[in-house]
Amino acid sequence: MPERNGRGEARRRARGELEGEVLAALWAAGGPVTAAVVQESVPGAAYTTVLTILTRLCDKGLVTRRREGRGHVYAPVDDQAGVVAAGMHSLLDEGGDRAAVLARFVSDLSDEDEQLLEQLLHGELPDRE
């Protein structure tokens, strides 16, 4: 059943939202899983839609597909942090003036994130709580 908005109409997902939900389901699974298992974790998505998204993610190199029995199992190539970092690099590459993009990014950081970034730039591992 499709997700509904406040007026009872089917809610359309934002661009890339479904891919993110499918990746989140794969990360949560902790190992290779079938499309049916992924579908159970993605509310309102049809099985064929999940298969299409998994195929697209394979084409993008974000997910692997391996034959198992009569079907396939899928697994993410990288963890969530790696995928987000790759996306940030991609956006930075497309952003034109790298200095301006980085300056804007840094100027919008919270004090805590700024301190964390400074630690990372100096090769220090942040304290994990």
From TrEMBL:
GO biological process: one example: negative regulation of DNA-templated transcription
Name of this protein: Predicted transcriptional regulator
Lineage of producing organism: Bacteria, Bacillati, Actinomycetota, Actinomycetes, Kitasatosporales
InterPro entries: BlaI_family (IPR005650), WH-like_DNA-bd_sf (IPR036388), WH_DNA-bd_sf (IPR036390)
Similarity comment text for this entry: Belongs to the BlaI transcriptional regulatory family.
Any one GO molecular function term: DNA binding
Keyword Ribosomal protein: no
Superkingdom of the organism of origin: Bacteria
Annotated organism of origin: Actinacidiphila rubida
Sorted UniProt keywords: DNA-binding, Transcription, Transcription regulation
